Amino acid sequence: PSMIKVSKDPALSNFSTFNALEVVTTSNPPKRTKLSRNLVALLSYGGVPDEFFLDILLNTLEESKTIFNNKRSALKAALNYGDMDDQNAAQMILVGIPLDEPHLKDHLSILLKTEKIDLKAGRLPVTESYYLMGTVDPTGELKEDEVCVILESGQISGDVLVYRNPGLHFGDIHVLKATYVKALEDYVGNSKYAVFFPQKGPRSLGDEIAGGDFDGDMYFISRNPELLEHFKPGEPWVSLTPPSKSNSAKIPSKLSAEELEEELFDMFLKTRFHASNVIGMAADSWLTLMDRFLTLGDERVEEKAEMKKKMLRLIDIYYDALDA
């Protein structure tokens, strides 16, 4: 069952809660990890050279040229985009069907077109990187600058980059230390594919990374040596606009079951069908300014400072719209 009845935690006696726990999703093995347009811009701002991204782009394009006559390249593409056709193309290649077979060739053409669209959109494949579900360290042992990352082979150690889409702020990419936590094994057992954040610190690390939290958010984790070598993190995001004070929100625990259902449906309908272009406009404007900012020389100090102010304002608008 996806929902089970649970007992109330005695340690949380001061909080009102419900007696049901619904499992919405679980952590899964990470697929081929790709950068995004925003992430490329932030990495570039942090010191990663343009050659890093250009090499990925050119190597991927070069490999795609051989997809119709090289079994290895064809299988790689089929596996990378296997979700599109339920691994049909990959299975056909593995059983020995020739690459020039019309049906298989048609499949490969679609995969190749999709890959080129991804590259055009800045979705560059990057090695030694993963998208993992984030949650809080239940042991309380992790320090402020530490995380615990669990992959297929278990917990890893060493520096990692941590980011959350769709972050736009210059400080949304953190450099943290992946740390082995023995006591965590008692909680997770043989579970895999997750990143645990510390309880300690004046502010939640999740909130510092694009205003994230731990209710199922996926975090970009990278131990790519080139990224770690060149990237220099910035200060975390802090909103420049004071939070609006509103007392109109209703407290769920004080509503009856019928009133709560009505409120939830009303909220869903407003969110689903209320037209809003604020998020897209703010993101597009930020990217336009960021592109210009990254091409300006160091001698254009005043212009860059003015552009950065505008970008910071756009970031606040963007994050406010996301939370609306």
TrEMBL record:
GO biological process: siRNA processing
Keyword Disulfide bond: no
A UniProt-annotated Pfam family: RdRP
Domain of life: Eukaryota
GO cellular component: nuclear RNA-directed RNA polymerase complex
Membrane-spanning ranges: none
Catalytic activity as recorded in UniProt: RNA(n) + a ribonucleoside 5'-triphosphate = RNA(n+1) + diphosphate
A single MF term (Gene Ontology): RNA-directed RNA polymerase activity
The keyword Nucleotidyltransferase belongs to this UniProt entry's keyword annotation: yes
EC number: 2.7.7.48
Chain segments annotated as coiled-coil in the UniProt record: none
Domain RDRP core: 1-324
InterPro entries with a match to the protein in the record: RDRP, RDRP_core
Keywords tagged on the record: Nucleotidyltransferase, RNA-binding, RNA-directed RNA polymerase, RNA-mediated gene silencing, Transferase
Matching PANTHER family: RNA-DEPENDENT RNA POLYMERASE, RNA-DIRECTED RNA POLYMERASE
Homology family: Belongs to the RdRP family.
Purpose: Probably involved in the RNA silencing pathway and required for the generation of small interfering RNAs (siRNAs).
Protein name: RNA-dependent RNA polymerase
Native species: Noccaea caerulescens (Alpine penny-cress)
